[in-house]
Amino acid sequence: MDISIVIPLYNEEESLPELAAWIRRVMQEHGFTYEIVFVDDGSTDDSWKVIREIGQNDPHIKGVRFSRNYGKSAALNKGFEKVSGEVVITMDADLQDSPDEIPGLYRMIHDEGFDLVSGWKKRRHDPLSKTIPTKFYNWATRKMSGIHLHDFNCGLKAYRVKVVKSVEVYGEMHRYIPVIARRAGFRKIGEKVVQHQARKYGVTKFGLERFINGFLDLLSISFVTKFSRRPMHFFGSLGSLSFLVGGIISFWILAVKFFRLGGPDHRDVVDQPLFYLALLAMIIGVQLFLTGFLAELVSRNSADRNNYLVDEEAGF
Ligand code: UDP
Ligand code: MG
Question: What is the pTM of this model?
């Protein structure tokens, strides 16, 4: 099969028939073999009913329905489990992404050898309250990940099937799939300018909290990328530094104490601000160290501690 299309959706009943018809048309025009996997993320409207109707006489259509709303990342992850096409395309269900982009994305994976191609909504049709923070967020993600994409969170993306089978999307990490894919060892990541429409039906499912959550997720993903397999290197170095500072100050305080013992400018140890600083630095140092040990124990038990991506093997 050439193409698998994964569509996560939450309360998008009005858009679905139009979307399915449009995809079918594009696929037939280009003669692709394909499947469409709708993942109903616990919709409370009639989305699932609509999917059943669309799929009734069409073997290309598959559907999965969650028992409640788990979020877009979970929906994508479930969809990725189901796919079997050579190229996997994800797109939003709200008709903001155009199925006409699919052939171009497919070619970039199939002919040009990209592992992942992200859409870039160069001309966006969204309110300013969304586009301005998005610019900042994309800039920060570029800086932290070293991946040069303009639009990390674009719902329209294409993947080599191997990529989706080896990444795990959880929490709200769908914003960072390119970062996760890069971490998993897929280096050829590209982008393609895509058409973007204003939302035709329904409402957006993400409010302004998306920016706070997105930023926190960016911090955790860059931490995890760097240190998840060696947490002690992070906590241990900070802890040693803090403990060292505390130790030097204590040493200094003691030295002064003995030197001036009973002298005219004698001061009690507890009368000096530095004493408290030393105390604090040493306690924090020890705590960071203990956190490091605990993190090491956790990462020792993690299921993917030895989960490497092997490109090729050979016996000579
Ligand atoms: N979505 C989902 N589960 C959720 C929230 C959203 O599957 O909990 C789907 C939604 O139905 C749509 C896509 O994710 O197909 C993108 O959502 P939306 O259009 O609301 O985001 P925006 O375009 O505003 O960034
Ligand atoms: Mg949308």
Answer: 0.86
Domain boundaries, the chain: 3-227, 231-300
> Which pLDDT tens digit goes with each residue over 195-250?
999 998 999 988 888 888 888 999 998 888 888 889 999 999 999 999 999 999 99
Mutate to test the pocket of ligand 1, among 39, 65, 72, 204 (most ligand atoms within 8 A of CB): 72
Atom 17, ligand 1: which residue's CA is nearest?
205
Model confidence pLDDT, tens digit, residues 54-68: 999 899 999 999 999
List of residues 6+ apart from 158 with CB closer than 8 A: 87, 88, 89, 90, 102, 105, 106, 108, 109, 114, 116, 117
Q: Is the CB of 12 under 6 A from ligand 1?
A: yes
Distance 72 CA to ligand 1 centre (A): 6
Whether the predicted pLDDT of 305 surpasses 90: no
Strand partners, 189: 116
Q: Which pLDDT tens digit goes with each residue over 2-27? A: 999 999 999 999 999 999 999 999 99
What would the two tokens of residue 196 be? 């973007």
Ligand nearest to the Cα of 77, by number: 1
CATH homologous superfamily for the domain 3-227? Spore Coat Polysaccharide Biosynthesis Protein SpsA; Chain A (3.90.550.10)
Pairing of strands 87-90, 3-9: parallel
Q: Is 204 in the pocket of ligand 1 (CB under 6 A)?
A: yes
